[in-house]
Design goal:
There is one protein chain. By secondary structure, the protein is an alpha/beta fold. The protein folds into three domains: 126 residues, Rossmann fold (3-Layer(aba) Sandwich); 117 residues, Serine Threonine Protein Phosphatase 5, Tetratricopeptide repeat (Alpha Horseshoe); 177 residues, DNA Cyclobutane Dipyrimidine Photolyase, subunit A, domain 3, CATH 1.10.579. The chain is built from 20 helices and five strands. A five-stranded parallel β-sheet has the order 3-2-1-4-5, with helices on both faces. The chain is globular, with a radius of gyration of 24 Å. The chain starts with 9 loop residues before the first strand and ends with a helix.
Length: 483
């Protein structure tokens, strides 16, 4: 229960993965209780261990904090930035500013849960009340269980049971009525957090993303007006703008899943569409990923299916680097990896293709792919990233069987029939007839020369033969069956 406060005392709102002013339960609690709000963000680069936010995420966080700080200043407040352990800093900030309560949004990854416990213990010892809220999901990961009272490991029955109760309304308050504490000038500036990577790679991201709460809502408006009604038919075509691109805004809470669901359902009800909205099923997959991470916290590093721990992965740094930089010789794979390296984002259909290629054609562990995505994706999310990679490797919950091996040639021909996506990201192929875009090695030498394609020169030969790679993957799988 939110304690009513009539004395105008101060409450800390500790921002975590909820970097927004609207539909923020912590802000709602503070304004409902009549508190003056002291907004705080703490950066601890050591909190996540090897899963501390990667380069692209740190770039995103930097700009999200820049925008949030600006929005708060417009309302008369100041975002307090700190660097270190939240369990030590939150009680000290509370003492320094006379804060009586702390409100914050929960996170569900193992390091985040550990941090929450330490903060709550420290505040309890200091005699300061703390209250946490679900700020980033539609439901808590523990709310939906199977008939035996255990966590689900298959999406369809999970979604069937959770869907009737999962859509919840955003909390309702006017952000312009938030009353902020008249705090002193913060000791740390945004630059003092050293979020921006030393490598200049991240600078190109500014050409592709606007990072702010208002940009998130503009993207949501585009989604309900242009995306969701044709999502089921256009979502697999990477050459069209048929997906929402809301994922990075969701990852750091510049928008909430409640806000997305509300807007999509309202638009749906105004139209003539019937049945389940396919776009919202993808929100369901995000919920399912958190369900799995919460109940099986070791899965970022270990396969959920134990037998896959003995899989004979290859330590092949040469092919790993070819994959990372989009030089495998398979255009559908290379286009996706080049899009990722340029924009910090990749189309979901292509994510499945590139992941399958790494773990099956190249026999390189899914953990290597997960780490590369973690460092280069602006929407890197531990729950979704883990679920996606274990799905591709066949070693997780609801996973595709390992023997389902995507053909990178036919995947391109099916989902990018004219080669527009591949040609956009691989300029040497832009004049090649679509018949040969995804298998340029089959084009006559004269055609390649005429169209400026130099296999082994400006575009690589395939790093592995498709049939050989498939056979090798199946042979590796067979070793688990006989082990």
């Amino acid at each position: 229960m939110i304690a009513e406060n009539s004395s105008g005392s101060t409450a800390i709102v500790w921002f975590r993965k909820d970097l927004r002013l609207m539909d923020n339960p912590s802000l709602h609690a503070a304004v409902s209780g009549g508190y003056r709000i002291l907004p705080v963000f703490i950066w601890n680069p050591e909190e996540g261990g090897q899963w501390s936010p990667g380069a692209a995420s740190r770039w995103w966080i930097h700009h999200a904090l820049e925008s949030l700080g600006s929005d708060i200043r417009k309302l008369g407040g100041e975002l307090i930035l700190a660097k270190g352990k939240a369990g030590e800093l939150i009680p000290q900030i509370a003492k320094d500013h006379g804060a009586e309560r702390v409100f914050y949004g929960r996170t569900y990854d193992p390091p985040g849960l550990s941090t929450q416990e330490k903060v709550e213990d420290a505040l309890d010892r200091a005699g300061i009340d703390a209250e946490s809220f679900n700020a980033s999901l539609l439901q808590e990961p523990w709310e939906t269980k199977n008939g035996s009272g255990n966590p689900f490991q298959v999406f369809t029955p999970y979604w069937r049971k959770s869907r009737p109760i999962i859509y919840r309304q955003p909390v309702d308050y006017d952000p312009t009525r938030l009353c902020f504490h008249s705090s002193p000038t913060p000791k740390l500036s945004l630059d003092d957090l050293n979020l921006l990577p030393a490598h200049g790679w991240h600078q190109k991201l500014e050409d592709h993303w606007t990072v702010s709460e208002s940009a998130a809502h503009a993207q949501l408006e585009r989604t309900v007006n242009e995306v969701t009604h044709s999502y089921s038919t256009r979502r697999n075509n990477p050459s069209v703008d048929g997906t929402s691109r809301l994922s990075p805004y969701l990852a750091w809470g510049l928008i909430s899943p409640r806000q997305i669901c509300q807007s999509v359902l309202q638009a749906d009800n105004q139209g003539s569409h019937r049945g389940e909205n396919k776009f919202l099923v993808e929100i369901g997959w995000r919920e399912f990923s958190y369900h799995l991470l919460y109940h099986y916290p070791s899965i970022p590093d270990q396969p959920l299916r134990p037998k896959y721990a003995a899989f004979p992965w290859l330590d092949d740094q040469t092919n790993l680097e070819r994959w990372q930089l989009g030089n495998t010789g398979y255009p559908m794979v290379d286009a996706g990896m080049r899009q990722l390296y340029e924009t910090g984002w990749m189309h979901n259909r292509v994510r499945m293709v590139v992941a399958s290629f790494l773990v099956k054609h190249l026999l390189i562990s899914w953990t290597e792919g997960a780490r590369w995505f973690w460092d280069t994706l602006v929407d890197a999310d531990l729950a979704s990233n883990t679920q996606g990679w274990q799905w591709a490797a066949g070693c997780g919950a609801d996973a595709a069987p390992y023997f389902r091996i995507f053909n990178p040639i036919t995947q391109g021909e099916k989902f990018d029939a004219r080669g527009a996506y591949a040609k956009r990201w691989i300029p040497p192929l832009e004049n090649l007839p679509s018949k040969y875009v995804f298998k340029p090695w089959e084009a006559p030498a004269s055609m390649l020369e005429e169209n400026g394609v130099d296999l082994g020169g400006n575009y690589p030969e395939p790093c592995i033969n498709h049939s050989e790679g498939r056979a090798r993957a199946l042979a590796a799988l067979a070793t688990l069956k006989t082990a």
